Recover the amino acids of this structure.
């Protein structure tokens, strides 16, 4: 039963051009890939493109994976991060469909507006971070990778990753404090 095989075994099968092995890897990892990518590029459509491209690269370069030097997830999330960083550097174009429904009313709309405002605040705060800081926060806090795994995925030592994550947290805290002060001064 291929579904129970570890990722590293599946990559060997992908290198031998086993499409079912690739589909299993996609089922296992696509949701997290999309979340990580979207945290970096702040756009679901771009995140989807990154996910598709990341798995295309797994298909093309599976033979270059070395299970002795890294786990599959470490190797794979390095691919995802590189694609997301490249996309994040491109100019942002927002589709018209993202505009909210101006005619909706009711409590659910207020709740949705509050949620959207909170998400916007988080997105704005994350956008002030460097790509690498944003990736560190996404991998560690939002996706639950261990410090060791996140450091490997980013090509850093654990100590360098901890330092990067600390700087990111400090920058986020400073931004939240500034927003809070600005709101209190308007009240």
């Amino acid at each position: 039963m291929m579904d129970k095989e570890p990722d590293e075994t599946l990559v060997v099968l992908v290198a031998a051009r086993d499409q079912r092995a690739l589909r299993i890897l996609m089922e296992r990892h696509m949701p997290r890939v999309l979340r990580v990518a979207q945290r970096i590029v702040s756009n679901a459509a771009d995140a989807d493109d990154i996910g598709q491209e990341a798995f295309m690269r797994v298909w093309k370069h599976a033979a270059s994976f070395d299970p002795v030097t890294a786990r599959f997830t470490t190797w794979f999330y390095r691919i995802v991060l590189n694609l997301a960083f490249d996309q994040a550097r491109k100019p942002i174009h927002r589709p018209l469909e993202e505009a909210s429904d101006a005619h909706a009313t009711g409590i659910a709309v207020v709740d949705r507006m509050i949620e959207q405002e909170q998400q916007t605040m988080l997105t704005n705060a994350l956008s002030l971070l460097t790509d690498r800081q944003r990736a560190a926060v996404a991998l560690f806090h939002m996706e639950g990778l261990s410090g060791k795994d996140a450091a490997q995925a980013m090509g850093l030592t654990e100590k360098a990753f901890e330092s990067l994550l600390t700087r990111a947290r400090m920058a986020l805290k400073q931004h939240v404090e500034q927003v809070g002060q600005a709101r209190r001064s308007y009240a």
About this structure: Residues 1-91 form a domain with the Rna Polymerase Sigma Factor; Chain: A fold (CATH 1.10.1740.10). Residues 158-186 form the longest helix (29 residues).
